[in-house]
Write a structure and sequence with these properties.
Bound molecules: zinc ion
Radius of gyration: 26 Å
Structural class: alpha+beta
Oligomer: single chain
Helix content: 25-40%
Number of strands: 17
Largest sheet: 11 strands, mixed
Length: 472
């Protein structure tokens, strides 16, 4: 990116905070981590009060919110319980989530704390029924390797996700997301350019996805902390797209330079807009925000727990090696997303492991985020048949390898590429023959047999229609 800014002379110091949802039950109760699309089973109304922090002071960010005197409504479900409503003390910490956090700590070369105090972080924007978020420091002092060298990992915390906002005007929140385990990774403020920030964020995302973490929109969130020489600390929040990180940092550095010239740089939290610009959200919270959670005993992490976490990690690594032509991370990702079968299937069409891995694991996510659709929707369109067809076309040179993503994008937009026509009567004949030869199979089984013979040349929809007709 041509920025026209010499970052070395600006003294840019930038750190990332990554929040990743884990794919387990909730952190302090045994409710499923399930986002609901249907209406609530019941709602509860609350007002929240400001509680002095550890230092006895009231946090400036909390005062800012409390001054707005809001009443909050919480949508509840049969998949939420009294813990989310703050009517029952938290249960002991979810051991599965703790294990994943330990594994992330190991992958990030962190020192794991043997004993840790679970803390409450004041949050009174209504996104927590209790007025605080529980968080526990699991590890610190690690690093991640990037092409610019090591970037330090300052802290790794395990915390509970907040309730999600449903109606901003009416202050309505939904409790389905509250309590989903999050790992919060904070890098040291050692990042010196926007490009490094983006690379570090991508790298951390790649490492996280080798473990049982949630996927899709909203399951990983990045914040950026930054300061330039002579300026104050700024937090940028709410990146919809990781690619926005570079642009947002660049814009903020320019804005800071203007403010410093006028002597007006103040610490604040800003929300990032889709174009990379940002708007004021609230003052930067101070240290007064944290105080100990007294309902839960100290968290003790034994040697045995760490060994167990390590053992599982090495078994993931052993599996990795078996996939030729792919990086360890890509291999692990392929296994984690259970796409090894599809990978092998496409490898029969074209011997290009890198391209296939990207086609299965990366392009659909990028397209989903660009088109603002869910990954599930995109993968439904870019199904096995479609990907098979695209790979056939790449092999024949009808689609350039470098144009693969573009072709998939067009298909996702409904523009489509032409399926090579197979004569319909020939297809019908073949299907009826297969059904006669192997009677009594399921529609899916017949589908598999037919698609194998016409790989990439026909649409699954058409075939299933003919099969159903013949089975009547
Ligand atoms: Zn619960």
């Amino acid at each position: 990116m041509e920025t026209g800014i010499d970052y070395e002379s600006t003294g840019l110091k930038c750190g990332l905070e990554i929040h990743q949802q884990l794919d387990t039950m909730k952190l302090f109760c045994n409710c499923p981590s399930l986002l609901r699309r249907d209406g609530p089973d019941f709602t509860v109304k609350r007002r929240l009060h400001v509680v002095p922090g550890e230092s006895g002071e009231i946090d400036i960010a909390a005062v800012h919110e409390a001054s707005l005197e809001k009443e909050f409504t919480y949508e509840s479900y049969d998949t939420t319980c009294l813990v989310e409503l703050d009517e029952e003390p938290p249960h002991t910490i979810n051991s599965g989530a703790l294990k994943i956090a330990l594994q992330i700590a190991l992958l990030l070369n962190c020192k794991i704390l043997p004993v840790s105090q679970i803390m409450r972080k004041t949050v009174i924007d209504g996104s927590n029924t209790s007025g605080f978020q529980r968080t526990v420091l699991i590890a610190r002092d690690g690093f991640v390797e990037t092409s610019h060298g090591k970037i330090g990992i300052a802290t790794l915390c395990l915390e509970e996700d907040s309730a999600r906002i449903i109606d901003k005007e009416k202050n309505v929140f939904r409790l389905d997301r509250l309590g989903i385990p999050l790992v919060e990774i904070a890098t040291a403020a050692e990042i010196k350019t926007p490009q490094q920030a983006k690379e570090t964020a991508l790298k951390l995302g790649e490492i996280l996805r080798t473990l049982p973490v949630k996927r899709g929109l909203g399951t990983i969130r990045q914040d950026v902390n930054l300061s330039v020489k002579g300026g104050k600390r700024i937090e940028l929040k709410g990146f919809q797209d990781i690619r926005n990180i570079e642009r947002a940092i660049e814009i903020e550095v320019k804005r800071q330079h203007e403010l410093i010239k006028r002597g007006k740089s103040i610490p604040e939290v800003r929300a990032v807009n889709d174009d990379g610009s940002s708007r004021f959200l609230r003052p930067l919270p101070g240290a007064a925000r944290m105080y100990p959670e007294t309902d839960i005993p100290l968290l003790r992490v034994s040697r045995g727990m760490i060994d167990e976490a390590k053992k599982e990690l090495s078994s993931i690594k052993e599996k990795e090696v078996k996939i030729e032509g792919l990086s360890g991370e890509m291999s692990a990702l392929l296994l984690r997303e259970r796409k090894l079968d599809e990978f092998k299937e496409l490898l029969h069409i074209i011997k290009n492991p890198q391209l296939i891995a990207k086609t299965l694991l990366i392009f659909p996510k990028e397209i989903a985020s660009k088109e603002k659709k869910s990954l599930v929707e995109i993968e439904k369109i870019l199904n096995r048949d479609v990907l098979g067809n695209v790979m056939e076309n790449v092999k024949k040179g009808k689609i350039k390898e470098s144009e693969t993503k573009h072709a998939l994008e067009n298909i996702a937009k409904g523009k489509g590429i032409e399926f090579e026509k197979v004569d319909e009567s020939e297809l019908e004949e073949k299907i009826s023959k297969i059904i006669k030869e192997k009677p009594g199979l399921s529609v899916n089984a017949y589908m598999g047999l037919v698609m194998k013979q016409f790989r990439g040349k026909i649409s699954g929809k058409e075939v299933s229609g003919i099969i159903r007709k013949h089975l009547k």
